[in-house]
């Protein structure tokens, strides 16, 4: 798949909240995820390496959610081997007040697979 095709498929699946399918079909086995330093305050590592570790992190993160009030993703912007999206969600985490989260995700695609994702929030 081209970067454009990968981005379009990511967008299609993320709107359906099919996170595991994204990881199983679009992520390289050795994917790297980079979160901002402040992610540690939420109990998340700054770097996660490998598809299985990414899946485990996502499952653990979703388990902390009491209610997902809204979830949105912009159309991807593609440039060369990269695409980016803006993700917006309103969520209530267990035992915490409702919060609005807005982040930019930048994805590096090589040979039709996402090899790195980096989030800014």
From TrEMBL:
It comes from the Bacteria. Gene3D superfamilies: 3.10.450.50. Residues 1-121 form the SnoaL-like domain. This is Nuclear transport factor 2 family protein. It comes from Chryseosolibacter histidini.
């Amino acid at each position: 798949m081209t970067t454009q095709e990968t981005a379009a498929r990511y967008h299609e699946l993320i709107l359906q909240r099919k996170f595991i399918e994204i990881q199983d079909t679009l992520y390289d086995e050795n994917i790297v995820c980079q979160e901002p330093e402040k992610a540690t305050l939420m109990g998340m590592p700054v770097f996660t390496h490998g598809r299985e570790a990414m899946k485990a992190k996502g499952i653990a993160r979703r388990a902390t959610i009491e209610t997902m009030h809204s979830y949105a993703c912009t159309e991807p912007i593609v440039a060369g081997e990269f695409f980016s999206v803006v993700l917006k969600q309103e969520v209530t985490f267990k035992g915490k007040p409702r919060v609005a989260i807005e982040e930019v995700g930048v994805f590096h695609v090589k040979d039709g697979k996402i090899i790195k994702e980096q989030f800014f929030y």
